[in-house]
Amino acid sequence: MKLTFGTLKVTAVVLLIQAILNGISVSSGPLIYGPFAALDLVLAYGVYVENRNAVKVSLVYLGLDLFLAIFYLIAGVIPKGVVALLDFLAIHDMVSYIEAVAGEDAGETGDVSV
What is the DSSP letter of 8? Predict the structure, then answer.
């Protein structure tokens, strides 16, 4: 598996890493992290098979996660910087994928305006 931007593999790996981190948090912290670990796993599979709905949901989910991670980082929680970096990489990968898919769709219809 080659990790390049625009193939959604980076996003799938980031979601798997976040599922692992949330799973670890369940054993040492509140149980609310359990559903998020399950959501990360479901989204990772959906993104890996390039389900467009999963990509859209993941984009919103990771965008909100990035937003909150930046707030935590401003508050001084340094480990959230790693989460913010992972979210940024995943969002970059999904935007590259969406740009490539939109280019293909525009090429099929002959419409160049996006």
Answer: S
Q: How does DSSP assign 37-96, residue by residue?
A: HHHHHHHHHHHHTT-HHHHHHHHHHHHHHHHHHHHHHHHT-TTHHHHHHHHHHHHHHHHH
Rounded CA separation 102/95 (Å):
10
In whole angstroms, give the CA distance from residue 87 to residue 67: 9
User: For 3-30, how does the pLDDT look when each residue is reduced to its tens digit (9 = 90+)?
Assistant: 677 789 999 999 999 999 888 988 888 8
Dig out the tokens for 93 from the structure: 């990968």
Residue among 10, 2, 1 nearest 96 (CA): 10
